[in-house]
Amino acid sequence: MFDFLIEVNNISLKPPRQGDDWLIRKFWEIGFDEADLVKLNKVRLHQQVVFFSDVMDASGRRLDKKYLEKRPDGEKWSSLTFPTEKPPRAFFSMWKEALLAITTGVRLGEYESEGYKTWDWRFDDNEENSRPRLLHLKGDVMDVYFKSADEQFVHMHNRWTRTRLDEPVEKVGQICSVKLIRDDTMAIVAKADPPPSPSHPSTFLEVLEEWGSEWMWEKLQLQGEDGWLEEAIRDNSLIAVTDGSYIKELLPNVNSAAFVLICSKGRGRLIGAFPEQTMAACAYRGELLGLLAIHLLLLSINKLNPTLDGSVHIFSDCLGALGRVENLPPHRIPSRCRHSDILKTIMVNCSSLSFKRYFSH
Asked: Looking at residue 245, what is its pLDDT?
């Protein structure tokens, strides 16, 4: 109606390290009031940090001192994208005070997941290499440092001099924090094992768990050997049936849906049902919920095999719901459309399945 577009990009963020927390919450816990938190948050955005661990060094025990100073324009300190903020110098004075206050006596644990902080330095002590290396990652290339041969540093264990420039990047070894000794010589301040590589779902159930909203799948019953759903789609033998339910006299704010996916060649079956409590409850919404559940299940299977070919035949006893889902517009659900939340979820996420869908009453 007003010719503007809203994009909601939900990002699943979780603290990377044991004992970690949201940085702003740490500021709040030591007594900064709301007005000060607004100022600190502007600096936080400029410094590109989210969690407490982002401002700590690799050991998780000391402040990474680069965060005390204003991030230079053009430098990227995080894998996330942040809005542009230009906090005044006075805000940075409060920021330094806050960082020093919350990092005293801290001891964070190991990494539990890959974080968002950009680690530009790594220490590689792999036995396959002739000698240990300090690596400075710079996008697609890296500089390589070896133990210093300079007479000034030759007797110092922790001095590393730049020897090779702009070699192909290698993300190996431990992440580390460093300090500058002179232009081409660095010292390692702290090291830590890198965050574990993120695990990827291996079953459609793990995909559903990763998405959340587990309440929809609590009553799933699955029968058959592993992979039968993919096989049934591939040879066009998967049938999906759904039905909605609503009894206004008993539960006016509850509708529910049930669904069955079955292989016509006898490989297996999947059965599920769930209720939904909503002020918009009605029989039609219950029918749409069943179609939504089937589409999300099919999407979870497609996520594991993005090139899966074949088809699935979907049945419902509600012509209105079938027609609406089968003929969804490609880009936008009309604002006045009933139950647009369900329809938009199907349109946005399930309109590009790699296999075909057929609908029957």
From this structure: 94
Burial grade of 21 (CB within 10 A; 0-12, 13-18, 19 or more): middle
- Closest to 293 in 3D by CA, of 350, 360, 234, 226: 350
Q: What is the pLDDT of residues 207-259, one digit of tens each?
A: 998 888 788 999 999 999 989 999 999 999 999 999 999 999 999 999 999 99
- Enumerate residue ranges in the chain where pLDDT < 70: 127, 129, 151-155
Q: Which two tokens stand for residue 328?
A: 């969804």
What is residue 18's predicted lDDT score, i.e. its pLDDT?
A: 93
Q: Which DSSP category does 215 fall into? A: G
3-state secondary structure 108-120: CCCECCCCCECCC
- Alpha carbon distance 254, 256 (integer Å): 7
Q: How far apart are CA 254 and CA 31, in angstroms?
A: 44
Domains of the chain, start order: 23-102 (no CATH), 121-192 (no CATH), 204-360 (3.30.420.10)
| Antiparallel, parallel or unpaired: β 311-316 and 238-245 | parallel
Beta bridge partners of 258: 243, 273
To the nearest 5 percent, what fractions of the chain are helix, strand and coil? 30, 25, 45
Q: What is the CA radius of gyration of the chain?
A: 27
Residue 222 region by backbone torsions, left for phi larger than 0, else alpha for psi between -120 and 50, else beta: beta
**pTM flag (> 0.85):** no
Q: Which residues contact 328 (CB under 8 A, 6 or more apart)?
A: 343, 346, 347, 351
**pLDDT tens digits for 116-127?**
999 999 999 876
